[in-house]
Amino acid sequence: MDFAAAIRYLESAMRFGIEPSLDGIRALADAMGRPQDAFVSVQITGTNGKSSTTRACAALLEAEGLAAAAYTSPHLESYAERIELGGLPIGEDDFALAMTAAASAARAVGDGERSFTEFELLTAAALWLMRERGVDVACLEVGMGGRWDATSVVDPAVAVITGVGLDHTERLGSTVEAIAEDKAQIIKPGASVVLGPGTAPVAGIFLERAEGFGLHPRFVAEDSAPSPVEEALTVRYAVRRRPNRPGGAIELDARGIHA
Predict the structure, then answer these.
(1) I want to staple 94 with a disulfide (CB 3.0 to 4.6 A). Which of 90, 215, 227, 245 is the partner?
(2) Predicted confidence (pLDDT) per residue in 183-204, tens digit
(3) Is residue 67 left, alpha or beta, with left meaning phi > 0 and alpha meaning psi from -120 to 50?
(4) pTM over 0.90
(5) Which H/E stretch holds residue 43?
(6) Above pLDDT 90, what percent of the chain?
């Protein structure tokens, strides 16, 4: 299918809404040969800051000489913006190619009763394209929550929670604690866990899940702000200069063993 056909296909899937299950994305990924196993993944959730953190992570990895990809949502003008390779959104041809692969997988595992959501199809397409383009590390922004999000088909090497507020309360719960419990599900055995400053009020929820897997999260704190973990596991930062124009740079100092 071409780009226009790919968009029509996606729009036809939107009516199926949100499915609280990983069965759909797992079926698609299995039909595509489990592309998520071909690279390392960084999974990023949180109420705010997910997209910018995802892009910053990919940019840092690219600067270290790795082939990095970013998967973010939503888009501003084009669905193709959601998948970035080498710091740039993919082209319409690559998007159409990836969606064709996802649609083929959907047909292969569909049984007349199983339908796939827009986000499941997009995520499957993104993972497939990242494998085809030889990505070393994929930085994946969670669409909503963490427990049932399609990006949770991966077992992340690094799980990042930027912060927690009241978001998607109709799906995730009516309290910050309930939402934190949902987002905490991206913490899986063997992952390195990074907690942003915005997690401080509910850090105990993330620390408890991490402790269950024998993990020791790093916490990012500004200057002398309190940290819920020992200082050796705390990364402290201070902003020295903020951008004063579009495209401007932020300058900051970071200190700590894991800075």
Answers:
(1) 90
(2) 999 999 999 999 999 999 999 9
(3) beta
(4) yes
(5) strand 40-45
(6) 81
Instruction: Give the tokens for residue 130.
Output: 């990242």
What is the DSSP-derived secondary structure letter of residue 216?
A: -
- Antiparallel, parallel or unpaired: β 88-89 and 83-85: antiparallel
Nearest to 42 by CA among 236, 251, 203, 186: 186
The CA–CA distances, whole Å, from 88 to 40, 85, 229 equal: 19, 6, 36
Question: Which structure tokens are listed for 96?
Answer: 């159409």
3-state secondary structure 115-177: CCCHHHHHHHHHHHHHHHCCCCEEEEECCCCCCCCHHHHCCCCEEEEEECCCCCHHHHCCCHH
Please provide the distance, in angstroms rounded to a whole number, between the alpha carbons at the two ends of the chain: 45
In the predicted model, is pLDDT for residue 79 greater than 70? Answer: yes
Tokens of 135: 């990505």
Instruction: Give the per-residue pLDDT at 166.
Output: 65
Render pLDDT for 172-181 as a digit per residue (tens, 0 to 9). Answer: 666 889 999 9
pLDDT at 110: 73
Dist. CA 229–CA 121, nearest whole Å: 38
Cβ(142)–Cβ(48) under 8 Å?
no
What is the overall mean pLDDT for the chain?
92
Which is nearest to 2 in space by CA: 82, 93, 115?
93
CA dihedral 123, 81, 90, 70 (to 10 degrees): -60
**3-class DSSP assignment, residue 76:** coil
